[in-house]
Design brief:
single chain, Rhopdopsin 7-helix transmembrane proteins, olfactory receptor activity, GPCR_Rhodpsn, G-protein coupled receptor, disulfide bond, transducer
């Protein structure tokens, strides 16, 4: 790969998140506990949806895919963050940096489309309940999942092709604890202003547009329901509030990281940690604690596993 782009840089230096030993221990425990929670929480949702026939509906199939994406997005960065906490020399090879960037944007692009699909699912269920099973049939549901993953790959490749052929001859200090397209492009030995604009448009403007589209769609659903009855409005708001929280948690950090014109390292690190550590563990909590069907299915799965082990 180095020969392909004529690069003399074979590795990048990552930024440490803490200098003091006490803060390093805190971050190590924080990242480790949260990552275990991310793995267990998201896999539990996936297995519950797979093995419980009561959840073989579009809403829960989309939710299981969201959990897989959250698990994948977190796994691209958090294990590296944990291993680098106590390391004095935080080095990542050129190849691993490229791979990390690619998969971050595959997962991010897929999640963006999947959240739109989940909003469409809720619109159909709330505003057109009699036609829900006809509109959101299994074929449509699987098509939405395939489209989400496909667009995620296209989103990542469209930026990856620009970056992979850039010349890197130094410096190689990333200024962040992970690799991402805007930071890597700034280290190239050429003027990358136009390419930076492409990346900003691809990741930033699309994030902003999608965020406002989703918020407007949720408002439209609530206005439509309000015309029917106040009782339906309260139920719809309770259902949509979970989706709105997930959308805000995912898109606000993305908009700051890719669109905010006055970035600072401390805020960049904060929003990156929110995206990679906090959001992937909150999504399963939000969807399970606020959904009676999911809680009931999880209790059934736990009883079944316990009975198989002890009965």
């Amino acid at each position: 790969m180095d020969q392909i782009n004529g690069s003399v840089v074979t590795e990048f230096v990552l930024l440490g998140l803490a200098q003091s030993l006490g803060m390093q221990f805190f971050l190590f425990l924080f990242f480790s506990l949260f990552y275990v929670g991310i793995i267990l929480g998201n896999l539990f949702i996936v297995f519950t949806v797979i093995f419980d026939s009561h959840l073989h509906f579009p809403m829960y199939i989309l939710l299981a895919n969201l959990s897989l994406i959250d698990l994948g997005l977190s796994s691209t960065t958090v294990p590296r963050m944990i291993s680098d906490v106590f390391s004095d020399c935080k080095i990542i090879s050129f190849h691993k940096c490229m791979i990390q960037m690619f998969f971050i944007h595959v997962m991010g692009g897929a999640e963006m489309v999947l959240l739109i699909a989940m909003a469409y699912d809720r619109y159909t269920a709330i505003c057109k309940p009699l036609h829900y099973l006809t509109i959101m049939n299994p074929k449509v549901c699987m098509l939405l999942v395939v489209v989400a993953w496909t667009i995620g790959v296209i989103h990542a490749v469209s930026q990856f092709l620009f970056v992979i052929n850039l010349p890197f001859c130094g410096p190689n200090n990333m200024g962040s604890f992970y690799c991402d397209f805007p930071r890597v492009m700034k280290l190239a030995c050429m003027d990358t202003y136009r390419l930076e604009f492409v990346v900003t448009a691809n990741s930033g403007f699309i994030s902003v547009g999608t965020f406002f589209f989703l918020i407007v769609s949720y408002i439209f659903i609530l206005v439509t329901v309000r015309k029917r009855s106040s009782n339906d409005l309260s139920k719809a708001f309770f259902t949509l509030s979970a989706h709105i929280m997930v959308v805000v948690l995912f898109f606000v950090p993305c908009m700051f990281l890719y669109v905010w014109p006055f970035p600072t390292k401390s805020l960049d690190n904060f929003f990156s940690i929110v995206d990679f550590v906090v959001t992937p563990i909150l999504n399963p909590v939000i969807y399970t604690l606020r959904n009676r069907d999911m809680k009931a299915a999880m209790r059934r799965l736990i009883r079944q596993v316990s009975c198989n082990n002890f009965c």
